[in-house]
Specification:
The protein is α+β, with helices and mostly antiparallel strands. It is built from 2 helices and 5 strands; from the N terminus they run αβββαββ. It has one domain: 2-Layer Sandwich (HIT family, subunit A), CATH 3.30.428.10. 18% of the residues lie in helices and 22% in strands.
Length: 114
């Protein structure tokens, strides 16, 4: 998508602090971290939200989940625990209209989210 900041990051047009990349997924550090570890995991192909992804073998979700597992191990938060968040739409807190997963860890989280 032409004006999507995450598409530009995936294409290498905007720099990011990459922590993981494969053919389908890119993961990079959030510029405004909400935890000691705050990494965004995005599909390289543009989907505005989780509502736009195919629910079949072409879904990016398995690749995003696999990336989250690897990153959590590499960041040393797999054993202590972490949070995965996908915000959807304005009321759901989605600020960038490109499907993305927040991987948050390195501190204890309460419930509700916070």
């Amino acid at each position: 998508m032409e004006n999507c900041i995450f598409c530009k990051i995936a294409a290498g047009e905007i720099p990011s602090t990459k922590v993981y990349e494969d053919d389908q997924v890119l993961a990079f550090r959030d510029l405004e971290p909400q935890a000691p570890v705050h990494i965004l995991i995005i599909p390289k192909k543009h989907y505005a939200s989780i509502l736009d992804i195919p629910c079949d073998a072409t879904s990016p979700l398995p690749a995003m989940a696999a990336a989250a597992q690897k990153i959590a191990q590499e960041q040393g938060i797999a054993q202590s625990g972490f949070r995965l968040v996908i915000n959807t739409g304005k009321d759901g807190g989605q600020s960038v209209p490109h499907l993305h997963m927040h991987l948050l860890g390195g501190r204890e989280f309460g419930w509700p989210a916070g």
